[in-house]
Amino acid sequence: MAADIDALPKKRGRRGALQVYDVLREEILWLRIAPGTALDELALAARFEVSRTPIREALLLLAGERLVEFLPNRTSIVAPFSLDNTGDYLDTALIISRAMARAAALSGRAEAAVLNEYVQRFDQAVRADDWEASLRSELAALRHLAGLSENIFLIKFFEQVVDAGIRMRVLHYYPNATADERRAAVDRLQALTDAVLAGDAGESDRVIVRMILSDFVIIVRSLEPRFGAEMRLDRIGERLSTP
């Protein structure tokens, strides 16, 4: 039976600390709350209409994922975003994503109508220049592919890898990717779905590697100096030496 592509994973019936955790985690990952923002427990308790205990429990869960930090003065903040472990992340993302792509291709469960609909939604969001819809639709497609494996460990670890990269994509990929690069991303997702539908594990593996490395080229480019290298600092010295 074809999956409902609108049926995003939802945690139903969660209350108290877990409900607070779900909402805050979403807001942190998608930068609704900026890195470094202080988290006022009293204000959060009022917002969620709960006591401070579930708020504290939710913050502890988020701290376990390194999304929240506790300062010595007992203040909690959204963890600052850093690229210091990007190399480790890239290695892990490649390993887990390659396993996911191969498993999806070998599963025999892929349905053309479902996968092509995911690609169409990604394409529509890119054409509309809607970065959030673009990222959400691309990630939804990849999560669906992971689910084809029916391997609970692979699905779990792939989800963690995906979530760990959201802030990096929001901050460094989408503001710097050109229109042509975003359209090329649609073509690569189509190539991945075609390989999965063909049951070609090797090609699925190669395409997912190209997808990840292409994204990281843009992320690395976002860190290049924008104007400093073009400044004529020698002329400043000339002016200072002029009597």
Can you give a write-up of this model?
The chain is mainly α and 243 residues long. The chain has two domains: 16-78, Arc Repressor Mutant, subunit A, CATH 1.10.10; 86-221, Four Helix Bundle (Hemerythrin (Met), subunit A) (Up-down Bundle). Helix content is 66%, strand content 3%. Mean pLDDT is 90; it is low at 1-10.
Structural topology:
Layout: H1 16-29, E1 38-39, H2 41-48, H3 52-64, E2 68-70, E3 76-78, H4 86-107, H5 112-127, H6 131-148, H7 152-164, H8 166-173, H9 179-197, H10 201-221, H11 233-241
Antiparallel strand pairs: 1-3, 2-3
CATH fold group of the largest domain:
Four Helix Bundle (Hemerythrin (Met), subunit A)
Q: Please describe the biggest sheet, giving its number of strands, its sense, and whether it closes into a barrel.
A: 3 strands, antiparallel
Rounded mean pLDDT is: 90
- Series of secondary-structure elements, N-terminal to C-terminal: HEHHEEHHHHHHHH
Distance between the termini: 84 Å
Specify the helix fraction band: 55-70%
Shape field: globular
Unreliable spans are 1-10
Q: How many distinct domains?
A: 2
Residue fraction in strands: under 5%
Look at the structure and name the CATH superfamily of the largest domain: GntR ligand-binding domain-like
